[in-house]
Design goal:
Blueprint lengths: L5 E7 L12 E5 L6 H8 L18 E6 L3 E5 L10 H17 L3 E9 L6 H12 L4 E6 L6 H15 L7 E3 L8 H14 L2
Parallel strand pairs: 2-4, 2-5, 5-6, 6-7
Antiparallel strand pairs: 1-3, 3-4
The structure holds guanosine-5'-triphosphate and magnesium ion.
The site of magnesium ion has 5 residues, from α1.
Length: 197
């Protein structure tokens, strides 16, 4: 997939700030530092469209990226970031929850898990919460460049088991470094847009 036009449309903290283009949206959910913003950059072949950092807690607003006037990628703040106050953390949680529950044009959630580790209690809770609300979820296991092929196979099976993924549930190993998995993820995204039109 070649992307010629990708731009930040809006950064929002509340519902009244969301853009009203009506385009289908794909939101990136996962713990801080798992690689959500990097994944967006990888999909659009840009180095720094979404701001990334080695330190968790980089993305702090809901950032809507317009991709070819065809869809929006929605970069969300991560959860499980320890260095913020409780009230700040509750504010982020509410902000993300409101978006995920209220946004009509939200087509699918791209849920990120670090392929190197067993999903945490927070990861499990988030995944179950998304399923509970009947959301369409595409699970992506990031940072696959850090593991050997054997380890990727082993950990993919472990993550499937921990999250209790069914046969029809996607789990895609991915690397924003090597772009491994990029074409497959684009195929899934395009399919989601076509089947829901
Ligand atoms: P928050 O905005 O804090 O929630 O984090 P995030 O999920 O957006 O993570 P971000 O994209 O900022 O990436 C965090 C760090 O992980 C950065 O140092 C990235 O370079 C690194 N990273 C992200 N994806 C990959 C990957 O596929 N492979 C490797 N090796 N590093 C990655
Ligand atoms: Mg981010």
């Amino acid at each position: 997939m070649i992307i010629n036009n990708a731009r930040l449309e809006t950064s929002a903290v509340e519902k009244s700030h969301y853009p009203d283009s009506g385009l289908p949206e794909f939101a990136f959910v996962g713990k801080s530092n798992v690689g959500k913003s990097s994944l967006i950059n990888c999909l659009v072949n840009r180095k720094a469209l979404a701001r990334t950092s080695q330190n968790p807690g980089k993305t702090r607003t809901i950032n809507f990226f317009n991709i070819e006037d065809m869809l929006l990628f929605v970069d969300l703040p991560g959860y499980g970031y320890a260095k913020i106050s409780r009230s700040e953390s509750e504010k982020w949680g509410k902000m993300v929850e409101t978006y995920l529950l209220k946004r009509e044009q939200l087509r699918s959630i791209i849920f990120l898990i670090d392929i190197r580790h067993e999903p945490s209690a927070n990861d499990k809770m988030m995944y179950e919460w998304l399923r509970h609300y009947g959301k369409s979820v595409i699970t992506v296991a990031t940072k696959s460049d850090k593991l050997s092929r054997n380890e990727i196979a082993k950990n993919t099976a472990m993550i499937r088991k921990t999250l209790e993924l069914g046969q029809g549930d996607t789990l895609l190993p991915f690397s924003s470094e090597t772009k491994s998995g990029r074409d497959d993820l684009w195929d899934i995204i395009k399919q989601k847009i076509e089947t829901s039109e």
